[in-house]
Amino acid sequence: MRLLSFLSLASFAGAALSMAAGPIAGAVAGEPPAGPRISGPHVHDNLAIYFVHGQNSGGPVPLTLAEALENAAVVVRETGTVNTLEIENTSDAEVYIQTGDIVKGGKQDRVLTMSLLLPPKSGRVPIGSFCVEQGRWAARGKEDVKAFASARDAMPSREAKLAMNRPKNTPANTAANNSATTLGRVPSYSEQQNANVAQQRRGDMTGGTSRQSEVWAEVAKTQAKLAAGLTTASVAAPESKSSLQLTLENEKLKAARDAYVAALAGKAKGESDVVGYVFAVNGKLNSADIYPSSGLFQKMWPKLLNASITEAIAERSAASNAAAPGGDSVTAFLASAEKGKPEQNEIGKFMKQEIRDADTALYVEARRSDGRFVHRNYLAK
Question: Percent of the chain at pLDDT above 90?
Answer without folding.
Answer: 73
